Amino acid sequence: MNNKEIVLDTILSQGMLPLFFYEDAEVSLEVIRTLYRAGVRVLEYTNRGKEALSNFHIIKKAVSAEMPDMHLGIGTIKTGSEAEAFIEAGADFIVSPIIDSEVARVADKHSKLWIPGCMTPTEINVAQQHKARLIKIFPANIVGPAFISSIRELFPGQLFIPTGGVEIEAGNIAEWFRSGVCAVGMGSKLVSRNVLDKRLYDQLYNDTVKALELVQLSK
Q1: End-to-end CA, the chain
Q2: CA distance readout (Å), 175 to 139, 167, 171, 219
Q3: InterPro entries attached here (predicted)?
Q4: Along the chain (219 residues), what's the average pLDDT of each consecutive run of 10 residues?
Q5: DSSP annotation of 163
Q6: 188 within 8 A of 167, measured Cβ to Cβ
Q7: pLDDT of 185
Q8: Which of 29, 44, 115, 157 is the most exposed place for a label (fewest CB within 10 A)?
Q9: Which residues pair with 186 in a beta bridge?
Q10: What integer pLDDT is reported at residue 165 of this predicted model?
Q11: If we measure between CA atoms, which residue out of 132, 187, 140 comes closest to residue 161?
């Protein structure tokens, strides 16, 4: 099984993809350690600030040493040059808020899983033309679970992961899985700015354990 398949299988079995960015590299790393202790084995660090690349280098080195079974991806990738830089820094997979053919090409060249963001049936069709195995529905809070239920039969076999607005609530997570998604993205509802600024690692640990349990019950 190649790296692309291993990452995809890990996302599917975990059923949840945590994602966050923080300016401080050490806090970012402590968040990842906390997520790991809670049971997370695949996560997305996002390219949302000028420190993202330098932080990623630091994080990747520590993750490789301390958490060798952790798959660390990079999100908010919009250009081929960004994709190249983070793959060189050790990114295991690439997540985009959009479809960009150059990002798709770079990911394919390096045999990395690429997860593009879509919001319409036309965009999903374009993503499929670029051979996207897993498609991010973003921003998911705008379209809601009903969107997945409505379009999934148009794209049989396509894997979807909603990101944006997924709540750590049994009803919310269950509704997304009933609509036909294979996993959910968890950003600020899990790793909130308050958790990051106040270093609320115990809260993050407990919330992550709860979210993972709700996902497994909902799948």
Answers
A1: 24
A2: 16, 11, 6, 10
A3: Aldlse_KDPG_KHG, Aldolase_TIM
A4: 93 98 98 98 98 98 97 98 98 98 98 98 98 97 96 97 93 96 97 98 98 97
A5: B
A6: no
A7: 98
A8: 157
A9: 18
A10: 82
A11: 140
Helix axes 201-218, 25-37, angle to 10 degrees: 40
CA–CA dist 183, 8 (Å, integer): 11
- Based on the number of CB atoms within 10 Å of its own CB, is 105 exposed (0-12), middle (13-18) or buried (19 or more)? middle
Q: How many residues does the chain have?
A: 219
Q: In the prediction, which pLDDT does 2 show? A: 85
What are all long-range contacts of 103-112, with beta carbons under 8 Å and residues at least 24 apart? 103/77, 103/78, 103/79, 104/130, 104/131, 104/132, 105/80, 106/80, 107/83, 111/2, 111/3, 111/4, 112/3, 112/4, 112/7, 112/87
Output b/e per residue, 118-131; b: 16+ Cβ within 10 A: bbeeebbebbbebe
Query: Is residue 56 exposed (0-12), middle (13-18) or buried (19+ Cβ within 10 Å)?
Result: buried
Residue 178 in tokens: 């009933």
Which of 209, 216, 208, 203 lies closest to 173, judged by CA? 216
The pLDDT value recorded for residue 137 is 98
Q: Does a cis peptide bond (omega within 30 degrees of 0) precede residue 156?
A: no
Domains of the chain, CATH where assigned? 3-209 (3.20.20.70)
The predicted pLDDT at position 174 comes to: 96
Within 13 Å, how many C-alpha atoms sit on residue 146's CB side?
Answer: 2
The whole-angstrom separation of Cα 147 and Cα 108 is: 29
One-letter amino acid for residue 214 of the chain: L
